[in-house]
């Protein structure tokens, strides 16, 4: 692939910062390269570059480095990253109607509608919002697949074709407010390969409900498209949408359900605690029966629901809560599990088991198990062996340690 010339790089960066970070170069200098050091706009330009770099977790040096340009070139949402409006604009009702235009659909109508419903359900399942489809009448949220190129499709924000802005949405309101437009020239898919329509749709519906962009790469509201997407909300996404539209009452799991499974199980002091969704069962020697309660009743909002693993380190007097790819503790968190010493290829922890007598912890990740070597503020880890080959040894340890 041919590299862009310095002038083209400057023009591209100017357009990107103008559209997504509010940079306003002087009209007569708009077409000068951003790298021109004698341009009086350079200070303002560098400030916008730094702002963009901070948002995406890059080193804020104000320079158009290769890493910075790579992020700028990623497919992304067409809305700005610097217009926070959280709480200021939202629908004043709980049932929101939507309508899908029948032109330029990327898939047969039934499959397209199913993808849209899947994205909408992501938000309605964690809040008090309900969505109602309309076939012909005007709706609160109009959904359309429009041509890019030079066509403005009536909203003043044209698409530039493949690889640029994938879609954009408008905040809740009358007229075009709440509408969502997708670039019909993009090669959409219905799964996690390529550009997934359900993932992008879920992001845009977040805007249509009143959410702004998030700098968290794990959030569905992250502006750049992640190439290994999963259709799920982050803890922050859930909290933000519930702040706008309320939290649904919790559904209590039935402990007699034969299909009941647990997210995590651990021993905390004298209790054995079972975690499921936002609930936990506490089994204590002095309890007549195992009691169920909300996780938040013990740890407030500092511990999320749907945990992946939990364990208590008695010697160091702390409890680790694992959630997807993040570690939750009292302060300075969430943080990536790579901070614990895991290599970057490890994306999640399936289970954690602490051996009190021998003072070490074993973590299970797929077909591998890891053992803690030291316990300082953060433990460091070294791979022992494949889980299959080491199970006999751990079975003996389990017998004498649990």
From TrEMBL:
<dbReference type="GO" id="GO:0030574">
    <property type="term" value="P:collagen catabolic process"/>
</dbReference>
<feature type="active site">
    <location>
        <position position="204"/>
    </location>
</feature>
<keyword id="KW-0862">Zinc</keyword>
<keyword id="KW-0325">Glycoprotein</keyword>
<dbReference type="Pfam" id="PF00413">
    <property type="entry name" value="Peptidase_M10"/>
</dbReference>
<keyword id="KW-1015">Disulfide bond</keyword>
<keyword id="KW-0645">Protease</keyword>
<keyword id="KW-0732">Signal</keyword>
<feature type="binding site">
    <location>
        <position position="140"/>
    </location>
    <ligand>
        <name>Ca(2+) 2</name>
    </ligand>
</feature>
<feature type="binding site" description="in inhibited form">
    <location>
        <position position="77"/>
    </location>
    <ligand>
        <name>Zn(2+) 2</name>
    </ligand>
</feature>
<dbReference type="GO" id="GO:0005615">
    <property type="term" value="C:extracellular space"/>
</dbReference>
<dbReference type="InterPro" id="IPR000585">
    <property type="entry name" value="Hemopexin-like_dom"/>
</dbReference>
<dbReference type="InterPro" id="IPR006026">
    <property type="entry name" value="Peptidase_Metallo"/>
</dbReference>
<feature type="binding site">
    <location>
        <position position="177"/>
    </location>
    <ligand>
        <name>Ca(2+) 2</name>
    </ligand>
</feature>
<keyword id="KW-0177">Collagen degradation</keyword>
<keyword id="KW-0964">Secreted</keyword>
<dbReference type="GO" id="GO:0004222">
    <property type="term" value="F:metalloendopeptidase activity"/>
</dbReference>
<feature type="binding site">
    <location>
        <position position="221"/>
    </location>
    <ligand>
        <name>Zn(2+) 2</name>
    </ligand>
</feature>
<feature type="repeat" description="Hemopexin">
    <location>
        <begin position="253"/>
        <end position="302"/>
    </location>
</feature>
<dbReference type="InterPro" id="IPR036375">
    <property type="entry name" value="Hemopexin-like_dom_sf"/>
</dbReference>
<feature type="binding site">
    <location>
        <position position="308"/>
    </location>
    <ligand>
        <name>Ca(2+) 4</name>
    </ligand>
</feature>
<dbReference type="GO" id="GO:0006508">
    <property type="term" value="P:proteolysis"/>
</dbReference>
<keyword id="KW-0482">Metalloprotease</keyword>
<dbReference type="InterPro" id="IPR018487">
    <property type="entry name" value="Hemopexin-like_repeat"/>
</dbReference>
<dbReference type="InterPro" id="IPR021190">
    <property type="entry name" value="Pept_M10A"/>
</dbReference>
<keyword id="KW-0677">Repeat</keyword>
<dbReference type="GO" id="GO:0030198">
    <property type="term" value="P:extracellular matrix organization"/>
</dbReference>
<feature type="binding site">
    <location>
        <position position="213"/>
    </location>
    <ligand>
        <name>Zn(2+) 2</name>
    </ligand>
</feature>
<feature type="binding site">
    <location>
        <position position="207"/>
    </location>
    <ligand>
        <name>Zn(2+) 2</name>
    </ligand>
</feature>
<feature type="binding site">
    <location>
        <position position="155"/>
    </location>
    <ligand>
        <name>Zn(2+) 1</name>
    </ligand>
</feature>
<comment type="similarity">
    <text>Belongs to the peptidase M10A family.</text>
</comment>
<feature type="binding site">
    <location>
        <position position="186"/>
    </location>
    <ligand>
        <name>Ca(2+) 1</name>
    </ligand>
</feature>
<keyword id="KW-0865">Zymogen</keyword>
<protein>
    <recommendedName>
        <fullName>Collagenase 3</fullName>
    </recommendedName>
</protein>
<feature type="domain" description="Peptidase metallopeptidase">
    <location>
        <begin position="87"/>
        <end position="247"/>
    </location>
</feature>
<keyword id="KW-0479">Metal-binding</keyword>
<dbReference type="Pfam" id="PF01471">
    <property type="entry name" value="PG_binding_1"/>
</dbReference>
<feature type="binding site">
    <location>
        <position position="183"/>
    </location>
    <ligand>
        <name>Ca(2+) 3</name>
    </ligand>
</feature>
<feature type="binding site">
    <location>
        <position position="186"/>
    </location>
    <ligand>
        <name>Ca(2+) 3</name>
    </ligand>
</feature>
<dbReference type="InterPro" id="IPR033739">
    <property type="entry name" value="M10A_MMP"/>
</dbReference>
<keyword id="KW-0378">Hydrolase</keyword>
<dbReference type="InterPro" id="IPR001818">
    <property type="entry name" value="Pept_M10_metallopeptidase"/>
</dbReference>
